[in-house]
User: Fold these one by one.
Assistant:
Number 1:
Amino acid sequence: MDTATAVQGTVRRDVTRALIERSIAIEYARLPEWVRTLARQCIIDWFAVTLAGARDPLVDLLLDEAREEGGKPVATVVGRGARLTRAQAALVNGTASHVLDYDDVNLNINGHPSAVLVPAALAMGEATDAGGIELLTAFVAGYEFACRAGRLAAPGHYLRGYHATSTVGGLGAAVACARLLRLDPERTATAVGIAATQAAGLKAMFGTQCKPFHAGMAAEHGVRAAALARRGMESRTDALECRQGFAPVMSPDLDPAAALGDPEAFFLRDNLFKYHAACYGTHSAIECARALHAEHRFAAAEIENVTVRVERGSDAVCNIPNPRTGLEAKFSLRLTTAMALCGRDTADLAAYSETSAADPILVAMRDRIKVELVDAWPLMQAEVLVTLRDGRVLRMLCDAGVPGTDYSRQDARLKEKFVRLVQPVLGDARCTRLLERLIDIERTSVRELMSVAGAEVR
């Protein structure tokens, strides 16, 4: 056996422990300012989309079930004026944060990290009376662990049909909660094992209520895994890489080099925020269509046909050809592109409904759009070609998978999104108060945040 093979063999055996040691080593005082900024932005965005989703019928259903189950009320449900157990609150809040499919994305996970990590950390942090610095640090620790675990099993895990938001997200949630409970490396590894054996979530459920439920379920699993590890429950401590463990069972790929490479890097840098209330896989096409419409000012009647070119994997994610419901509309490249070409506001929550899916103007445009699948493209890249009746062909290429680097501009856009989503729910004064506390999160506590965000929605 040569040296390279020997080193690779060692890495394969120790990957879970190596990732945990790195996460535990993360300290607020040593975080670069840009990491703190992005972490605050993620938490601000999470509260915005969760408050906006707090009145969804699925949230009502889960809240009713939790109340019937009962339990010790120690954690707050955002926007509902209710208190539940830690695990129940994580489930309900996690589901609410993903129910609109308006939450952030990271392609290292191939999923939605904040929708799982924030509700789990809030539930555990409120129960333990954590401060804002502890919350932010636990979030970063869980986020980095989830990204690296996602890279370990990529790309086969997602391609096999697992919803990584749920499966990989639950691992990160366990690490974030273990951090808040101040568990040592051994107990943190145990928590990861307990979370790994609960990991589930099928991409086949996209377009149904099970997709947002996946995020809540993973947050609940993370809370429970850390709590049980603290009490002494046993588990494998090499759950990610061991024979018949997480990656070997749930993916044809096992890439320790991708998981452990560039050890000083923060994958939070790759976080992608949503400014359209649909599946992120539709965003590049929306941006192309919006840009073409703004530049050329064509009317819908002038369009002969449209081709949307996307990476082949989009077919299994966001290519519902003829959506019938608001949920299905969020996963339809044809309909969301039609909305953009017709000048509809794709950031408007009300734009995705059964009525919109059946709108004769949108349906007529949708039926002029063809989706073409392309091999070996960037995952989120799209090209839109609009052929006009006068013979002109207009083209636009966009890759929404490239993260922003102008954090000041990003901050302004996220605050605008926050106000747009939260003000109708909490009113002007409470919206302003919550945003101020989130901006200054290091000087507040989880309980203070939840006292403002937990108010019953209008």
Note: The domain at 3-272+434-453 is CATH 1.10.4100.10 (2-methylcitrate dehydratase PrpD).
Number 2:
Amino acid sequence: MNLAESFFTALDSIAANKMRAILTMLGVIIGVASVIALMAIGNGFSENITSEINSIGTNLVSISTDYDNSDGYPSLSMEDVAALSDSGNVPSASRVGAVIQGQQTVTYGGESVNTAVSGASPDYMAINNLNEYQLGDGLTEGDLATSARVAVLGAGVASDLFGMEYPVGGQIKINGVSYEVIGVLEEGGGGIGGFTDDNVYIPISTALSRLYSDRTRHGQKAVSTIAVEAAGSEQVDDVIAEVTETLRERHDIIYGEDDDFSIFDQSSLLDTVNTVTASLTAFLGAIAAISLLVGGIGIMNIMLVSVTERTREIGIRKAIGAFRRDILVQFLLESMVLSLLGGALGIMLGWLMTRAASTVFDLTMVIDARTVMLSASFAAAVGLIFGIYPAWRASKLQPIEALRYE
């Protein structure tokens, strides 16, 4: 009996028990669909986070206080910002900005929200891509120099306070003091630069004089974060070295002592995010793959039942000259056909699940061709592995005993 005949015999056997075949394939269908859908969702989230980081740029270096080594004091000041802005100290940087953050009550008319109010420099806004406005304009160096009482609102804050009213030119109150709204940021949600929709931005000089009184251990006005933009992504390491040297010298940190500040760059963050999301995606795929094993056990169970039901058929075929390998190949093919059909249907179902998840999460889901090939290969392997024992058992039947089987 050749391979083609064995294949068509396997199809006939499956077609004779359609409902049983469908139920048998169900475990494989669900397993393959789950692997594809979960890995597509994981890849989609990874792509979304990566694109968000890349939109800011991989040449951004962020400096913050390391409170474990600063005796509990903020360690960064406006004087540090000025020193890092000096091209003689950090020649590899193109821009330097700073921000100080805290929670404040912001009111307009009868509306009130408790939200983040950030004192920022124009360069900080630009470095973090917080310079796209749906209404009005942003902070300027003139606002910084005069400590102007002006504010840029996140889209969420603007909606909460003003509703349908036009916000630009309106007077909001922060800590009881009036500020003129000069702009509203584009809706952005949670980004690397902060939850922009729920933020209010004012000039950092205004924030330091009116809202925030934190001081360094030397009595200088403290800032929360300093952002440094390298001239290019290949100069990030140079910027880190220059910033470290400048701040250690300014903070009188001697050789061997730990820095009282922390530095991280976007490329390192991107590598970390990619590692974490890849591990999470693989973990989700591994969990989904367990259902494929369950499906394989179901296939083996049904194939054992099929061997028992067709004992006389096996005996007749052996009596008229069929070899053990013919019986072995036939039952192995039946098992693999069930598994491969289930895999094909699972791929289709996984694609539909991915499209549905893409709509629900509003993300571009990424179906990796390698994932599809891996799922199909795993489905075939399941059919082969779990079909071996039933096929071997069928091939071992003695013709006389099989013919006498009732």
Note: The first strand starts at residue 60 and ends at 65.
Number 3:
Amino acid sequence: MSTAEIHRSVAPSVVEHRTSRKGVWLTSAIIAVLAAGFALYWFKFRPNAASTGTAAGGGRGAMNRDVPVVTASSRMGDFNIYLTGLGTVAPFNTVTVRSRVDGQVNTVAFTEGQFVHEGDLVAEIDPRPFQVQLEQAEGQMIKDQAQLNNAKANVQRDREAKDAISAQQLDTDVATMNQYEGAVKIDQGQIDSAKLQLTYCKITAPISGRIGFRQVDQGNIVHASDATGLAVITQLQPIAVLFSLQQENISAVLRKTHAGETLAVDAYDRELKNKLAAGTLLAADNQIDPTTGMLRFKAQFENQDFSLFPNQFVNARLLIDTLKSVVLVPNAAVQHGLQSDFIYVVKPDGTVEMRNVTVGPTEGNDTVITDGLKPGETLVTDGVDKLQDGSKVTLAQGENGPTTRPHGMTGGGRRRNATSKPST
């Protein structure tokens, strides 16, 4: 066989062998890339074995771990029951100070916003025209009095000389005397009227209270018929609050007032945060408002510190009853389930008991428990969303300690879980 033939026979084998090795290398490269990608995915995205083990085996361990909670103690005490209604402060008396005579304002004797007492001088009208009228009336009085005295003397002489004087003359003299007596009485009336006008020139405060802005300045002419007046005085001590209550509560209130009880009323600001004044219930209206179904009540406040101001909006809280020696708990301790209300009670061994309770009225931060709880028991007020019946807890500050918040725990731990089912 020639050399050329040998090369032709060997070449296809070499080519086939090289092709086979190339495919193997390509396949190996692909497999290596896939393996590297899978390994990267596995180590980056697979669940942490330690975490998985903890989650798998820690479901039981989680229940064994102590849960940090905030606690408080139930207590025995008196509980006030209030009825609250939106009210408006109203003065008992408001007076527009007016001039009762016509004339020029000589003096304005008050400062705007000043507290004045009954009888204090408010303003003064020019008195000179009325002094002139008084002098004229007094002069006429003197004249008519002299004529009256002369007429009386004539009558007296006529009666002494009755034989020498005819009856007609006597009757005429008596009529003249009576005429002058009438004139003197008219003059006296004119004098009294002039003196009264002089009195009206000094305008005084008819009531005690705070005076508002002046409506007339010094030097202006005022008339008794003016509609605006000089100023307005509003009585502030005592002062009233008008508030409304639903008709469902009327019988309870009226039953106590008819029995002669004095019901206390507190006035709070619009946010029901700050107590402004304390007073007593004064009266109830005689008709229910048909549009709202509410009855209006009036309470009286001494208002010594002027904390109540006319037309101010307040919340009136009427003390309707007081429950004596009841069990009280913080509102946060009471949880609401589908079947009943319940409370987590911390037992001496550090575990909690989910206990069904009967809830009474709530006022402020306190709730009355009528059944299911005794005074002095330790209650969970925060962290209840992590608890189950029998859970081990860590108290924030010893058993029966005051309500506190553990270190690192934020607010909002308390939830009202409507789906919770307390143990029976």
Note: The two ends are 106 Å apart (CA to CA).
Number 4:
Amino acid sequence: MSARKRKRSAEGTSARARHVGVLARDTIVAVSTAPGRGAIAVVRLSGTAAERICRRVVSPGRGWPLVPRQATRCAIHACDDRHTPIDDGLVTVFPAPGSYTGETVVELGTHGGAYVPLAVCAALVEAGARAARPGEFTERAVLNGKLDLLRAEAIADLIEARSAAAHRMALRQLSGALSARLGALREAVLELEALLAYEIDFPEEDAGQLPRARVTASSEAVVAQLDALLATVPAAILGREGATVVLAGPPNAGKSSLLNALVGEARVIVSEAPGTTRDAVEVLVDHDPWPLLLVDTAGLRESADPLERLGVEVSERYLGRAHAVIACAESVPGLAATAAAIATRTAAPIVGALTKRDLAPDSGVMVGARARSGAVQGLPFPVVAVSAVRGDGLEALRAQVMAALAGPAGTPDPDTPMVTRARHRSALTTARDEMLAFRKEWAAGALPAPVAATHVRAARTALDELIGVVDVQDVFARVFSTFCVGK
């Protein structure tokens, strides 16, 4: 390892050590299970004094030390002279360093509900613990080397996952796949820095000047890796937030009935009276490979009714941010008119749905699995005939919507870790911009190597912040502020 690399590593280690030293003086406590009525709750302590503090509120105190990782039934009481009873629960000790945080951790399994867990937590604070900040347990795990920053963020993503896609991405990141990919990328940037440093520091060596083509190839390889990671962003956004699919069309075109049929239950009021839907209704449906945020909107038409006009304005806003639109109409000419109105409000791909096929005569559009994927009577988008009552064409419609979404987002690759957070996206974009600037200046040869190398250094700094190598306190404060308390 070069002296420069050793210095950077020592600086990062020193910053971590200072932060760990501050944390080591405190033993923290929090209720780690969700608040509200429940059968059980978990109160968690972490720190060097965890066992000593716990003994003050747990009987029999003389039973310590408990067998590590073995739940022991104990009486839990207040930290007072009378040992006022609070609960009868289970206590488990996880000695350092073999715990989640790397410190001694004690978990108290109590009865659930609103009062008992908080009373236990209050007793432990009275005994000497400090209430934990959001994400502080996981922060300590990172600082003690049990997790890296990216895997810590994956834990938060796993907790917040609302769909199979979000769950799958979080597990992939938790496995360390993204950490390994970014670690290799950072090493490639460091190697490029080393090449440039050789030319800057030893220009008169017998080996001669560094071949410019080698630096160019190295920088291009780094840019290609950055591009590949950033290319996963659209699919990752769909996986986390769901693809917004707007059902749009004139009043009484069967949009609400179709949404209910796609969801599988009555979520929207259906009426034969036109204009019943005045506001947008969102329903998140888990689907593979992405969840779908289905949105029922007010009918698109001119109206003198102020409330209906407001509903149409809401519809237009949803159309503006849609990933795909299901255009609903009862006839092919009506579908053409509806699609034309939609196209003025969004650039999202359109899938046509000829609704109420159980009431209308045969339109010539195939139904169900045989639905056409090409144009129908000159329409430049796929059309599926559907019946919300009988369920005809629903699977074919879903398939066409997913095909429309696959265009801009691509198909998720299970072997490629995805960039799931805005923080990741920002750092990688900065690194890419700096590398592109370096490549341009290096190719032109207009600047001395030390000046051009500042772009490579800036790219490496962006990756350092992403991985958590530098600026520990600032980065950690931003990351862990979004965690739930007790994790």
Note: Residues 230 and 429 are 8 Å apart (CA to CA).
